[in-house]
């Protein structure tokens, strides 16, 4: 039997959306092949000349080639990556209004879990469901590790698949679907939500303008909370 759904569900990207800096970009810039090469790879992905899957793997490979373990990466990120200042209050608002909150990420679970627990604490962390890629490390060599993609698609993690699988659990009362993102990995998710939030000044805004995809621009999660609250009031 399918469950009756909540009135709304929020799905959000992690890197560059919940976090103010993209942790994978930061690792590549500081521990991998550097900013210039990373921007070249990102431009190829944005122009659809290189899949996100292959470009991201190339970025991570440059980090392991420089002999940095996954633990090294997490240690660096905990010191340098910051959470959107409005996210904690947004999470509390979602919880008080019975709105499920999912992180749908093309990043890696070990990194997301470490950052989330460090900044949010276990109580807040437990409210968020994380659907992301994983990572595996060679048990004989900690410097040999790689991403484990969720699926076979060019995205590595087709976010629309994850979102639609969750939504399929609800039968007659389909919830209002909100998605928050910033970049190339959010393109598939942008097509299966009712309202898309795109971080100001980032690649998702560029893509949406190019493809005439409607979106709400945001600077912090305070903007998102305000817009969702207004939207839900209009529906009641």
Poorly predicted ranges (pLDDT <50, ≥5 residues)?
none
How many individual domains? 1
CATH homologous superfamily assignment:
HAD superfamily/HAD-like
Label the structural class: alpha/beta
Which strands sit side by side, in order, in the main sheet? Answer: 4-3-2-1-5-6-7
CATH architecture: 3-Layer(aba) Sandwich
Largest sheet features: 7 strands, mixed
Nearest-angstrom radius of gyration? 18 Å
Helical residue percent? 40-55%
pLDDT averaged over residues: 92
Keywords: Hydrolase
GO molecular function, one term: phosphatase activity
Organism: Dekkera bruxellensis
InterPro entries: HAD-like_hydrolase_phosphatase (IPR050849), HAD-like_sf (IPR036412), HAD_hydro_PyrdxlP_Pase-like (IPR006384), HAD_sf (IPR023214)
